[in-house]
Amino acid sequence: MNNDNYWIILLGMSCITFSCRYLFLSKQLPFELGTKAKSILSYTAPSVLTAMWVPIVFLSESNIEQSFFTNPFLIAGLVCVFLSLKLKNTFLIVVLSMSIFLILRLI
Fold it and tell me: What are the helix (H) ranges across the chain?
């Protein structure tokens, strides 16, 4: 894929994402979701995030060569889960988890 196609695809995906978000979150549009639809949509973010991190942690080419317990993606992910259970500050959790990941990658 050349650079031109990459930017076109990225722009198209951004427009689609913005459109979907705008339709559901805009207060100017006379559109209201029911409680059942809101409840169903509350599972969307965890599902999408899981679909993004599982291949990165378990199926990355560099991870196949590494031991299960020396995988920096897995260790940083587990630390992130533990921190999120103990702390309620999302920014602090992200900074600490990314710092641990970067330290593990440099070792």
Answer: 3-25, 35-41, 44-59, 61-64, 72-86, 90-106
How far apart are the C-alpha atoms of 61 and 32, rounded to whole Å?
A: 44
Give the CB-side neighbour count of residue 92, counting CA atoms within 13 A: 8
What is the pLDDT tens value at each position of the chain, 107 positions in all?
566 677 888 788 888 888 877 777 777 777 777 888 878 877 877 887 788 788 877 776 555 666 767 888 888 989 999 999 999 899 999 999 999 999 998 98
So where are the chain's domains? Answer: 1-32, 33-106
Phi, psi of 27 (to 5 degrees): -85, -15
